[in-house]
Structures are given as C-alpha cells and as structure tokens.
Amino acid sequence: MDIAQLRDFIAVVDAGSLSRAAGVLHVSQPAISQRMAQLEAHLGVRLLERGPRGVRPTSRGRTLYRDAQQLVRQFDRLAQDITSDRQPVHGPVAIGLPTTVTAPLAPALFSWIRAHYPGIHLQLFESMSGYVHELLLAGRLDLAAVFREDDAPRAAELPLYSEELYLIGNPDPAPAPGNPDEVSLPDLRQVPLVTPGARSNLRALVDRAFAAHGMVPMNVGDVESLGTLIRIAESGEACTILPRSVVAVHGTQHRLGVRRIVDPALRRHIAVRTATDGYEPRDAVVAVRRGIVEVTKELAATGRWPGIRPA
Known about the structure:
alpha/beta
C-alpha cells in the first residue's frame, strides 16, 4: 500500500462513485475499479460496498478513510517542509470553528496570524459544533474548537474558555425572583425552544440539564443555523438557548430578550483540539493554537468577547 493508493481511495469515497472518481483522477473507470480491488486484496478486507447508485465505505473502509486523510495530509506537508525555502513556520492550517465562536474569534485571529506568522495560510471551516467535530475526526482539520460540559483534562486538548448560556427570545416565562434579567431553568418547562439538532453539544447539554430536573424540553424545531435561531427568537414564535456573545453580533439585549438561566446555571467549556494525540503537531499548527489562546484572552480582557471566562 502506498500514498497513491490512499489518494485514490479517498477520491472514490469523496465522489461516492467509481465513475465520478475516475473523472476526478483523469483515469478510466476500469482502471480505478481495478485499483480498489487490488487495495482490498492487499489488505484482505472489503473496503467498499458497491451498488447500482454508487459506492460507500464499509466500517473498515471508514476507518481507512479517516486515517488515510491524516496520512496524506502529513505526507504532503512533510514534502512541503523539506522542499520549501520560505520562513521556518509556514504552510496551510485547517481550523474548524463552531458558529458561535467564529464571529468574535476569526477576524482577530486572522490579524494575529498575519502579524506574527505571515507564512501561515489559514483555512477556516465554520459550521455547527457536531459537523466541526466530524471533520476533525475525519482528518479534514488540523485544529478545532470543541465544546465540553466540564473542564477535565483530555488528550490533544488545550482549555480555552468557559461561558454561561442564556435564554434568548420573547415568549414570557416567569423571571427569576428579584431579577428580571434571569430565568429559572424549571420555569422553562413549557417554553417552546428551537435548538441545533441531536449531534450538537449544545442540544445534548440542554437535554441533560432538563432531564436532571425530570423535564423534557419543549423542542419545536431543530435548526442548524445560528442566524435562523436568532431570527426565530426575534419573531416571538419560540426561544433558543445560546451564549451571551451572540447578542453583540446579532442585536441588542432588549430586542432579543436575553436572560441568564439559573437554578442551575448552564455553563459549557470550550477547548482547542488537535487532530491527533499520536504525534506532536507541525510548527504551524502549534503557532495557530497559541494564537487562538492569546487572541481569546485579549478579546475577553478588552470586552470584545462578552460573557466568556478564559481558562
């Protein structure tokens, strides 16, 4: 098995079809089909399920696909590092950021990288947290911001910050006693909510918090878009649960009806994670990770990222 076979296999899985992969690779379909058969024979396992609508990886094929992504990326960057005569810290770094993190962090991070490491080329992927985590596991990213429910140390992760969650929207649950800017979690039993889908860390946190009080959230829709969540909350049709930092980007606290959730407070922790804990990341990845930490602390200290507590 060599790097060319891994590239071919990745292309087939990405295309979902031997004929489409052949077009991408500029070879004939029989040629790419033979290459896949040879790879399966060499490994002694079936990697692809073939059907009338194309191909899809088997469970072992998915494992190979994930690890092949990382190996090919490492191979390409090793060759680039050896042959390049540019400054020592350079090259592409792929970062995945959940949507609630992107708006405050990304512009400042780009400025920091340009000032400190102009040879680094950032590749930014923004999506909901569940998809960002999938991209990281698939080997498509070098770094990702990931959400956790606690700050316990984990391999390949560096704690970044923590933040409390707020009820956002105009329906009228009872405010917490003595404070109209707070609302008790048990009082949200009958409040219609829109949240990201089941793969989202935020959704899992909310579901578990309600379950701890013997409740089930009245979820009236799964929405995988931060902007749409905010617009629905503005409409008065339903509320959502998000960090306070989104208010600075999407509207005023009064217009959005932002209230801190208490009894108990909902807090989540954010860490920056590398793609693997099996080896030390490249210098460029280490540099960008340091930049993320430094920029986060600076934004919090200057009030440009409200509601977060740096680790």
